[in-house]
């Protein structure tokens, strides 16, 4: 399911749930960390992607997608599939005036890992398994660590909501909450 939202203030987001936009599966290398969980919960597989366009300034575009795969351990592994070459173009539905390239460049990987870890620790995350950031797209001028940090926090918050039983928060309210932090 794909939903395009206008968040006001010239902010737009595209959200994919349980499907990801098509993307090359190969990566140059992976970055990985793990977190120990105190009370692990086994959940279900999830796929989410968020494409974010902010008001035009020095940092306004990112696309990031993840796959959550549960397991029966007491840890959460966070992985990023890094692809540094900028050969493949991404055809965004958002109105952009520059070329968008598929892949998560290594220059954004630490920002993604640190932001994911921060949100997971703040939320007392307990779903064991692995979160793999498999998909990304960036522009050479309009992307930065800051916008990838923002989209990571939105994605992890959406994933937590998806895995939480009985959560009544809408995707839009979660996205807006993370955007306004």
Biggest sheet features: 8 strands, mixed
Count of individual beta strands: 8
Helix content: 10-25%
How many helical elements? Answer: 3
Q: Which class of secondary structure composition applies to the elements?
A: alpha+beta
Order of helices and strands: EEEEEEEHEHH
Overall pLDDT confidence:
89
Low-confidence spans: none
Instruction: Identify the overall geometry.
Output: globular
User: What is the subunit organization of this protein?
Assistant: single chain
Radius of gyration: 15 Å
* Beta-strand residue percentage: 25-35%
End-to-end C-alpha gap: 26 Å
Task: Give the SSE map.
Elements: E1 2-8, E2 11-17, E3 29-36, E4 46-53, E5 61-70, E6 75-82, E7 100-102, H1 106-122, E8 129-139, H2 145-163, H3 171-179
Overview of the structural elements:
This protein is α+β, with helices and mostly antiparallel strands and 181 residues long. The chain has three helices and eight strands; from the N terminus they run βββββββαβαα. It has helices at residues 106-122, 145-163, 171-179, and strands at residues 2-8, 11-17, 29-36, 46-53, 61-70, 75-82, 100-102, 129-139. Helix 1 crosses helix 2 (145-163). The mean pLDDT is 89.
Give a nutshell description of this structure:
This protein is of the alpha+beta class and 181 residues long. It has three helices and eight strands. A hairpin with a 7-residue loop joins strand 4 (46-53) and strand 5 (61-70).
């Amino acid at each position: 399911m794909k939903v395009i939202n206008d968040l006001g203030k010239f902010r737009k987001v595209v959200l994919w749930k349980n499907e990801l936009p098509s993307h090359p599966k190969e990566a140059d290398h992976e970055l990985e960390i793990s977190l120990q969980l105190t009370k692990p919960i086994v959940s279900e597989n999830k796929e989410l992607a968020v494409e974010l366009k902010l008001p035009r300034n020095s940092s306004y575009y990112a696309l990031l997608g993840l796959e959550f795969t549960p397991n029966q351990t007491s840890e959460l592994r966070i992985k990023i599939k890094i692809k540094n070459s900028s050969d493949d173009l991404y055809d965004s539905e958002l109105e952009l005036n520059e070329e968008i390239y598929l892949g998560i460049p290594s220059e954004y990987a630490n920002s993604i890992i640190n932001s994911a870890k921060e949100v997971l620790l703040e939320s007392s995350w307990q779903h064991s398994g692995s979160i793999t950031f498999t998909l990304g797209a960036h522009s050479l001028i309009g992307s930065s660590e800051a916008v990838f940090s923002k989209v990571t926090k939105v994605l992890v918050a959406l994933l937590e909501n998806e895995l939480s039983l009985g959560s009544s928060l809408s995707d839009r309210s979660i996205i807006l909450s993370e955007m306004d932090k």
